[in-house]
Fold 3(Or 17)beta-hydroxysteroid dehydrogenase.
Amino acid sequence: MGRLDGKIAIVTGGGSGLGKAISEAYAGEGARIMVTDINADSAQSVANAIGDQAFAMAQDVVSEEGWAQVFAETAEQLGTPHILVNNAGLVIPATIEDCTLDQFRHTCAVMLDGVFLGCREAVRAMKSQDEPCSIINMSSMAALQGYSPFLSYAAAKGGVRSMTKSVALHCKEQNYPIRCNSLHPSGIDTPMVRQEAVGAEGDATPETGMIPLGGLGHPSDVASLCVYLASDESRFMTAGEYPVENGTLHQPQM
């Protein structure tokens, strides 16, 4: 028996990296998944690899109409979702001195506006569910400690952190069966982190074993926590922020 048997999930940015790992982990625990990504081919590839439990859609998370279509299509193909993972994101290297207004707005549109639209659509759809539901918002360690080379990324993720708590509290106040939590990974071995703009180098991270301080995490390190937060095992956990960072936050300053 899977930990997510009978659950229906939407995972944004599911065509690669963390979204792919989360979608695969959910399927492995019995969930049915709508995999969305701005790259339709990538989303479809992940869904094909999962099999009959998964469907795929192209989605630009900035589009309000697009969010309505995703929830409508999910309801038609699978049923009303119990789980939303707001994972889609991007990173643009720029400090406070050289970040353009267009770069800042684009980053916040994808990772803050997109999360807002997803949360709003999810609450409206899930509030009448008879079963517990979960919204999981992908924030970052940058929201907890700042990240000067990626100003707009840190700003957007900081907004996700506080918005998550407001969504969670609203759902509790309204007695909706919805929990909302944020995850805060540090460097995870994904294509986004490996891109030249970010500059992560070195050997690929193994899926098992200890990771040295400063090493990259494996996507499964985040996906495993996403399974727990999506399951009814975490029924007493909402408005929380969960670092996945191998001690990065507590390294002594030299």
User: Anything to note?
Assistant: The two ends are 49 Å apart (CA to CA).
